[in-house]
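ingest -> validate -> predict -> emit
validate: passed (alphabet ok, no gaps, 398 aa)
predict: started
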Amino acid sequence: MKPDPTKDDYAEESLPPEVGAPAAPERLEFQPWHKPRKQFIRAEQWLHHIKSIVDVLGMDSFKDGEPLRYLTLPGPDLLDVRMIADYCSSLDIRLKYTGFCFSTDSEERRLRQNISEFSLTHNDSIAVNSRVVRLKIQEILQKNSPAAIEMYKGGPFDVINIDACEPLANDGANASGRLVDTIRGITEFQLGSRRKPWLLFLTTPIQIESISAQSLDALHGQVLINAQNDHSFADEISKYFGEAKDLKSYLLEASKTTGDGLISVFSLGIAKWLIHLAEQANFKVIKLKGYSYSMFRKPPYDPNMVSLCFLFEPTKLDIQDNTGLTQNSSPTATTTLPLSNHIRALRKSMSIENLDITLRESPIKYEECAQQTKELLTRVGYSVDDDKNGYDAWLASL
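emit:
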């Protein structure tokens, strides 16, 4: 009998557990995302702000079985999903996750195994038809594609986590398959489907070789336009010019080399771009604290990876009755203007925290993150405590 397309069953590309004799366990190798700094991101950025969005939405948003809806690009160990599911379980909220994971065959076997184990151990906290599909997130841009259908089924989302290893815009606007186009597609879907706050996490590599000249010009252009139209923003950003004679010179100079300057300017441009998209749908974008770290294996270890966070909030619509049939409410008097979201984005972009430095200078926090990682990896089946090949030995070898 053919499946009923009106029912929310697994797609062909989804990864349910396979039935059959268990395979011999593979030796699990520790990966760069198992470092303590990545756990800092999971706990101090992702989970921290997820707790905040739940508070903002209120528990009434999750009554009658309504889940926390989460879009993610998970690794085969589902570490982010596990952590968020534990939090949701503590509040008696169900988590509905929609994951896109275009994995290797070996990773797919592990992913199937972890989904099976995860479904059993978290049965009470996971919403029906939470799933991971073996599709590229970029395919959501193809109308009626399996990926687009999965996004529509799972959303609109409370939290979107684009934790990517690939560059955001390494080609010009005419190229296909760019991550930045995918983020635009997801943002448009959200803005057209939801009038409640939601979160966007974005992790991506940022270095000279990974950004096309056309993309960088477009991001710079957003900043230049803002400065032309807003004297307060222009005055604020001029504090960072250093020896540069004007804003354009500053942006070009900061973007010449991989490191803190490029990360700040790139992050500001992305924030401005998202604000530009959101304002068209009567949303505002609040840039939250961001973090950076280095993926280089030799000195000088300049930061080339950034983890950003944006809160989207609907703006109040001021509906006026000019017919005279009803009275309009009097405008509320304000004594002080709130901080502009543009200036907030600027300040947050210029103060992105380098986690390599932070954790080096705070061994207690480093050990705390390491211990949390060990606990997560133990649950997945890693030989964390092995004297020779365990987690501590792996960290010491880096």
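The two ends are 54 Å apart (CA to CA).
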